[in-house]
Each structure stands twice: as C-alpha cells, then as structure tokens.
Amino acid sequence: MSITKTDSVGIVQPQTRHFEEPLLLESGKVIEQYDIVYETYGTLNKKADNAVLVCHALSADHHAAGYHSEADRKPGWWDICIGPGKAIDTNRFFVVSPCNLGHCNGSTGPRSINPKTSQAYGKDFPIVTVVDWVNYQKRLADTLGVSQWAAVAGGSLGGMQALQWAIQFPSMLRHSIVIASAPKLSAQNIAFNAVARQAIMSDPDFHEGCYYDHGTVPISGLKVARMLGHITYLSDDAMGDKFGRELKNEQLNYDFGVEFQVESYLRHQGESFASHFDANTYLLMTKALDYFDPAGKEGGDLSAVFRKVQAKFFLASFTTDWRFSPARSKEIVSALTDANRDVSYIEFESNHGHDAFLVKNEDYLNAFSAYMQNIEVSE
Asked: Is pLDDT larger for residue 5 or for residue 79?
C-alpha cells in the first residue's frame, strides 16, 4: 500500500519518555519509575499554544492516527478525526497521543519488568485511576514544553480523562472535548466490567495474575471478556442490520457449535483481541472506569466540581449508544450549565452504538471540525 492521502499524517514513529521521578498514585502506592510511549502529529508553534492532548479509551493506545509502515492495513484508531484538514487539524495543532500507564503496548504496565524484582510486575502492578493518568500526562506536557493545552480530547474513557483534566489542572487547558462519555459509570456498566473481570480471573490459565511465570495466557477468559464488551459497544440495530439471524452454514446443526453469523463474528473479535492484549491490563482498565467519579468527593454534586473549572466544553453523544447514553452526557451538560460554565452539546443520529465516535459520520465530523476551528492559536 502506498500512503499518499493528503489528509493523512502519513508514517509516524512512536517515541518513549522515561520518568525517574516516582509517581504517587491515588491508592497511596508509588510507581518508582516508568516509561510512557506516545506519538505526536503536527508541529508545536513558537508560543506553544497549539497543543492538543488526545486520550485513548479502554483498548486503544498511543497510535491514534497515521500508519507505522507502508504495510499497515489500518490507520490509528482516531484517524477519521486527526490529520491535515480534519477536525483536529495537524496543519494548525500539535497533537500528543500517549499510551496510558498500565497498558500493554509500550508504556509501563503489568508486562513490564519491575526494577525491584527483575521480573514482570504481573499482579503486583498497582491499580491506576484517571486521576493518576492525568498526573503523568501533566509531567509529559512539562517535558514537551506545553504549559497549557489548547484542548484535551477523547471519547469514552478518553472523555473521562478530558473531564478530569479540566477539574485537576483548571488553568492548563482552554477546551475540554468529551465525546460519548459519562460523569461516572452506572451500576449496569460496573456490572458488565465485573463479569468481564470474572471471566478472566476464572480462567485456569490466569494463575491469580501470575500467568507470565507459568508460561500461560488466559486466552479463553480474555476472549469472553472482549465478546461481552463488544456486544455493549454495538447497538441492537447495527447488529440486526449486519447479521440478523443469518446462519454461518445453510442449515441448523442442532449442537452447541457456532451456528449464527453473529456468534462467528463475536468469536473472531474475541480471538483477535486476545492474541495481542494483556489480561492484567484489561483488569486495570476496567477498574479505572469503575473508579471514575469526580463528584464523589463533593457528595455527588457535579455542579460544585465544575465551578472550579476554567475550560470551555464540547460534548457529543450518539442516539443508539446505550453503554454511555446521551442521558449521561446531558448530566454533564446540566451540571456545567448550573455552574455557569461555557458548554456546547450535540446529540448525533447513528446506528453504530458506542463505537459511533470512531466511525465516519458527516454531521459529527463537521460539528467537531467547526468547534476546533474556533479555537484560537498563534501562527
């Protein structure tokens, strides 16, 4: 494949930043030293006022746009939004996309070597939260010469990070872009995560998180966890349109094998995911989702939390997203309005469920682009 598209950032190379300063976590534990892998697109201007931080969701990573080689079949996970002339226009903005702590794709996480033991952290890697991620992202910004983000943007769990940035470091960002997200998980969402974790931890190959030492991988549990998660990312309409009740073969077998196309699809998704993702990381990411609740320390009063923020907000939701429904975005909008903060909100028609923020939709991309174009940056 020849990568010649004028709206692509092209071939990109991940970078690694090592941090020696210990990071105190919200749990009270400490990560003594760590690496953060990240990608950048565009150029930081002389006043360093055009930087945009892009935060990833549960299973994504630092590779948000472009390609790593000519052989890549797919671009980064948010390539529809990042690049020359796109919503996050790399002709205007300097984009920073890091891989979060606890991940399994370069940044320090459970698969990394613990310098104290010379063995993989495994189950000993501490729980990390959205607050912890924002703290390391602040350190990364400092090393890059960014004293204030033009915007912090993300969808789903990434949107939670964009929210937390506005709360945790109010003067360090001018705009918070929160897409298909929520102010905290519902009981139902926590339940989905609990079942996914149970599937992984019940796998005989999990070995209480020490599967590296046993030379095993809890593939079966991770597959089931991903299959469950994938169902929640899609809408009923999307699954119906794509699969209906179509059979994999021409007739019923009257056994417990894979008979429907939707079963085959979910199996494929689970197997593909389990072949490259780490089970301990999956546990950590779901816990970060569960623990996110910025209003928790204010007695549940989200408006009180938002009275401290300085950023302007852009929120977007999608009609068929039942994992983070439009009602959850409206909770944020209502609290921001009560706090007399500047907020723009749009609900988009889409049959793609929660995954809609990753899918081309002209109305969504045009509105996102229009908002970003109004963010002032120096030449």
From this structure: 79
Cβ neighbours of residue 319 under 8 Å, at least 6 residues apart? 326, 347, 348, 349, 350
Average pLDDT, the chain: 95
Asked if residues 260 and 243 have their Cβ atoms less than 8 Å apart, the reply is yes
Residue 79 has pLDDT above 90, yes or no: yes
Catalytic residue flag (residue 62) = no
Q: Which of 203, 230, 354, 355 is catalytic?
A: 354
Whether 1 shows a pLDDT value over 70: the answer reads no
Annotated catalytic residue 103: no
Q: Which of 321, 329, 350, 352 is catalytic?
A: 321
The CATH class given to the 190-286 domain equals mainly alpha
The beta strands (E) that lie in the chain are given as 15-19, 23-24, 30-31, 34-41, 51-55, 82-83, 88-89, 94-98, 113-114, 119-120, 151-155, 175-179, 312-318, 343-348
- Which of 59, 97, 156, 235 is an active site residue? 156
Candidate CATH numbers 3.40.50.300, 3.40.190.10, 3.40.50.720, 3.40.50.1820; the one for domain 15-184+292-373: 3.40.50.1820
**Annotated catalytic, 275?**
no
- The 10s digit of each residue's pLDDT in 302-355 is 999 999 999 999 999 999 999 999 999 999 999 999 999 999 999 999 999 999
Instruction: List the chain domain ranges.
Output: 15-184+292-373, 190-286
